[in-house]
Structures are given as C-alpha cells and as structure tokens.
Structure to design on (656 residues):
DNA sequence: CTTGGTCATCGAAGCGCTTCGACAGAGCTC
DNA sequence: GAGCTCTGTCGAAGCGCTTCGATGACCAAG
C-alpha cells in the first residue's frame, strides 16, 4: 500500500491534473473545483500519499516541526517533564506539526544549529532561568519561540508560566478558610532561589497578600535535620500556629515527620498544603492538598502560542496559568 | 553572525571553490586537498553555515532524524521514560542525528506517515507489547527500526530489552548470599502479565533457577489489602522465610508495612530486594537493594543499533542488557 | 614525447515540492 | 458582441543540497 516514494506527480497523474493542482488542493491556497478536489483526494488516499517533508520544507520554507528543549540533565522533576513533553506533542500534532526533542545541554549553539539548518520552524524553551544564555541567543537568531518561565528581561519574548503569586494566594486562602489564624509559608531552600529568583518571591507575596497579619514566611533548607529544626523553631515562636503551606518539594516528608513529633494531627487540628507535584502530596500520610505545576496546560498553551506566532498572529508576551488546588 | 539563509553557495564563493567541493569537504565522500579543505572549513566557520536540513534530506534521501515513539499516555513509569528519552537524544546527537518525539497513540498510521514523508530515517519503538499492531506496520513499511521489548514474533526485527531472566537470578543470588534458605518471589499483578507476557515468566525462571529448592513464586495483586493478605499467607505457609524479591512496583510499600506488622526487621533478620525503578526502592525505610530497568543504557543501545542499521551494518536481532543490582 | 592513471575539482542534473504568472473559458456589463 | 472580471487550472522556475560524469593537471611508465 503506502508505497515507498509516492510523489505528488504520481497523485497528479492518477487524478489527471497537474502537480501544482494537487498542491493547491492539499494546501487550500487557491480555489479548486469540488470535482477536481475530490478526485485528487481520492488519489491521495488510494496511493497513501504523504508529502516528502524535506521537499516541502525546502520549497515552502516551513518545516512543520517545532523543537522542544528540555532540561533533561538534572534538577527538574522528571514526571513533570514527561507530562510536559506529552502535552506538547499532542497539541502539536493537532496543528499538524511534529516535535523535535532537544536537551538543554546543547545550549545556545544548539539553537543556532536548528535555526540555521531550518530543521524546525520554532522552539519551545522549557525551564528558563533568570539569567539564561539561551535567551540572548534566541533574540539574536530571531527564531520564533515560546519560553516556559520568565527570564530577567522578558521584553519582546513570549513567556508562559504558572501564576505563582496566585498559587501563594490559593494556599493562604485554603488555610484561612479552615479557620487557621496563625499560618506560615515554609519556603524553598537557597539553591532554588539562586537559580530562579522571582518565582519564590511571587509565591510569598501572594501568600502574604491573602493571609492575615499574623502570617509569616520562613525559608527552609531541605535536609531532614534542618527541616526538623526549622519546624520546631516555628512552632515555638508561634504557639498558635494552625497551618502551613510548604513550597519546598523535598522537605514535605520531613515536615510531616516533624509535625507528628510535635503532636500535631494533620488534617484535624493542623493543616498543611503543598505547592508541588502530585506525587509529593500523595506520598504523605495523610495525603495533602496541593497546588501543582500544571505541566500539560503549560505545554498546550506554549504550543498554541507558538503556532499563532508561526502564522503571523500575535500573542500576549506574558501568560500566567491559573493554579488549581487539588484537595485530597 | 549565523545569518539567516547562509547557503552552500555562499560558502563556496567565500572559499573560492565550487559548491560541490564544499559538499565533498563536509561529507568526506571524495578526497579533497588539505589546503582547499581548510579554506572551506574556515568559510563555514566564518559564515556560521549549517546545511539546510530539508534540502539535504531531499537530495541525499537521509533526513538525519530518527523518531522515538513513547507510550506517553499511561502505564509506564514516567521518570523511566524520561531517562530513556534523555539517553536517546544524547546518544543520537553523538551520531549527528536529531530525535523526533512521537506518542504511541499515533499508532500504525503515525508510522506510515513518518515513513512516507521521509521525515525520519528510522525509528525506535518503546514499550513494545507481545501483540503490538505497530510491529506489523513496521514490517510492512520496511522502516529501519529498533524495538524496546519483545513482540510475540520477533523474527527479522531488532529488539533490545533488559535480561529479565538474569534479573531474577541476581535477586535470588542476593538473598541466597545473605544466608536466606527459604525465599520467595512476589510477582506482578495479573494486569501486567496480560499485556506483556513473557517478561514476568523470565524473571521467575531466572529466580527459580538460581535459588534453592525451597524457593517459591507467589503472584500478588497490588492493592494494600491484598498485599497484606498475601504476605501474611506467605509467612504462615513458610515460617522460615528469610527473604523475598518483589517484582511489583506499586506493592513494594505495602509489602514493607506487612513485614513490619509481622515483626520482621528488614535489613537485619529479613531481606528484601526489588525489581523496579530506583525511586521505589529509595522511598522505603530502610531503602532496599534493587535491580532497575536501565533506561539510559537501553536507549543508548537502541540508538546505536539503529545507527548501524542505517549505515547498512548488521546488528544482532536480539540484545539483552545485563541487570545491575544496586545495594543501598 | 606519448600514453595511461591518479587526484582534485567543477558543472549540471535532479531530489519533490510550492508558488508565481499565464491563460483559457465562463459569466458579467453596457 | 466587445470588453471586462473571475475561476480553475497549468507549466515552469526555483528552493539548497548531493552526486555523477567530465575535465585538467600532474606524474610514472613505455
């Protein structure tokens, strides 16, 4: 069936038209009579014709492929990345595009390569950091792109991310709604802030904004001992503390232990809410409510924005995805 | 710098040679004098030239891209998939190839599409099942490919997978070496067997082969209650039981609880070894030794085999990766 | 000195597609 | 019924590369 090397000429011959007519039927760029179009489509189906991607890209200067650069090396939470990749591919296919997978370690040179070789039409850059050398390269290359995350200078770029400030607000509200007056946000470790300033601050602002005057924010390292100590100090300094939001993935388990040690019964006389992946919140006992990074939604939004850019439409420079609180 | 649209003609002009000469310098397919080659390479560097992927693919009938079809939808352990993807991209880049990401839900039609459009030269199919419609499509299309996993009829295909029989042996040996006489393998739930018969049996055979006559294999569902019951029955039926291997990811945590309830102190008077991802074995207390699916190695091997096939070299039809036991 | 053989390079053809301009024929208008 | 404008279709050019055959330069052998 779908023979090797069915060309547009074969389709044209079978339908009794010129190759250009086949092209126009397929692209819809000129009006074609319904009868001709039907015959062409029938020939396409009969022969199992698919345009040669290289030829198409050469002639039309559109590859039909977008690149996705993921930080595969370290750091990011693997399942989240996978969800992201999955969402991006699915959405891209809806637009008849394929997705080329790149790793962040190819860096700016990798971007230059794909741009110059015209192997992709555009690019989605995952996990953008505040000072990211790739961003500068992107500007220079003029390759249409969408970033996940916000670099220091986002001027002229299209960025998508979770609305972390809203996430902070949502967590505060969750605790307040449960009658907690004294609450705290247990923040991330220094390492995280170092890489991506901004997003931690935004959580904190959202949290404080929505919480009462007796809310506090405590930074927190993530090794067991430090968490234990931090929680103990926190409880001592605020004896009325009734709820905390944890924005520090690796610390969540330790926090739960520390609270148990202090005699707090989470879910009853004490409330905890997590900002992080589902797995983290599900692994505790009891399971915790959480606000997660909505990887699929981010990916879909990013792809959709990129498609619009490729079509010459405009898109907002900055898009913030509304956080969702999952109760458990 | 890397201007938009630097062509081979630009490079040729700058180096004072014909375009074909540039091509030959770059591909090494004809001998070129060192002086000329140097001049050409200098021009390439100066102009930031990268060949147009589409043009190259059209002229040479080689896209320089391989597809990787992942089961993004469900089932498989996400982190493992991600490691796999990462390993594949890294290895592919070493061979100057890019990787196109596809999802398994495109099915046979997706394979037909990428084959006919010549967008990729070859394909890596992840998580192949015993009866997999994609395998048939693959045969029909004649697209060079490497499968991860073994379908029912692997004749003429190139397959790579973990050597599950060896994994079973390794686990048995671990327990035997620790002086356990009575040991058991706690197997997977029915659902897993239904999809991919074969690999569970192989673990079992390896286990029994290496273990003493008093070893047993117990199948086990993975909900908490069933695990609890299964473990209890197991301990009753074999009072001398001193170690078990668990080949059932979701059950591991429950097994540990059941053992604790029964008064067994794992790591001291009782031994447990896991066949599964690192995360599963690290999440328990104490952490357990485990044999993991070596995703990166599998990916690298698969890509390497595919490259050889694309170069017309031959590769073994079946490759089994040696399992590694990680002590903790 | 011819002849034959390498070696390094060139020019042209062609890969399969899109796109542009051209052009018949149909349907208007006046 | 002459002059329009539209519509639907065709043919040819050209996208940037690889590859094949040809060619000149040079050298060794006869």
């Amino acid at each position: 069936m779908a023979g090797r090397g069915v060309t547009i000429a074969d389709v044209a011959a079978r339908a009794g038209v010129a190759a250009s007519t086949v092209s126009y039927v397929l692209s819809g760029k000129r009006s074609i009579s319904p009868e001709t179009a039907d015959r062409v489509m029938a020939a396409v189906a009969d022969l199992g014709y698919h345009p040669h991607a290289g030829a198409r890209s050469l002639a039309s200067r559109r590859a039909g492929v977008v690149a996705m650069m993921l930080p595969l090396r370290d750091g990011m939470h693997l399942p989240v990345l996978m969800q992201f990749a999955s969402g991006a591919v699915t959405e891209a296919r809806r637009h008849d595009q394929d997705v080329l997978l790149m790793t962040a370690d190819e860096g700016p040179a990798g971007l230059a390569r794909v741009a110059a070789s015209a192997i992709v039409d555009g690019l989605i850059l995952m996990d953008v950091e505040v000072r990211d050398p790739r961003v500068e390269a992107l500007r220079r290359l003029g390759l249409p792109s969408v970033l996940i995350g916000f670099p220091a200078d986002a001027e002229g770029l299209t960025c998508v991310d979770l609305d972390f400030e809203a996430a902070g607000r949502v967590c505060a509200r969750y605790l307040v709604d449960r009658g907690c007056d004294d609450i705290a946000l247990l923040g991330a470790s220094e390492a995280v802030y170092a890489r991506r300033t901004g997003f931690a601050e935004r959580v904190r602002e959202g949290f404080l904004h929505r919480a009462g005057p007796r809310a506090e924010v405590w930074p927190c390292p993530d090794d067991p001992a430090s968490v234990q100590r931090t929680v103990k100090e926190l409880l001592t300094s605020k004896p009325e503390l009734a709820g905390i939001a944890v924005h520090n993935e690796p610390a969540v388990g330790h926090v739960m232990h520390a609270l148990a040690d202090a005699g707090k019964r989470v879910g009853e006389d004490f409330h905890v809410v997590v900002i992080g992946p589902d797995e983290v919140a599900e692994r505790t006992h009891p399971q915790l409510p959480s606000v997660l990074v909505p990887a699929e939604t981010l990916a879909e939004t990013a792809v959709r924005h990129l498609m619009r850019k490729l079509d010459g439409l405009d898109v907002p420079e900055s898009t913030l995805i509304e956080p969702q609180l999952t109760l458990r």
In short: Residues 17-21, 24, 30-33, 36, 54-55, 57-61 of chain B lie near DNA strand C (CB under 10 Å from a C1'). Chain B touches chain A through 50 residues (CB under 8 Å).
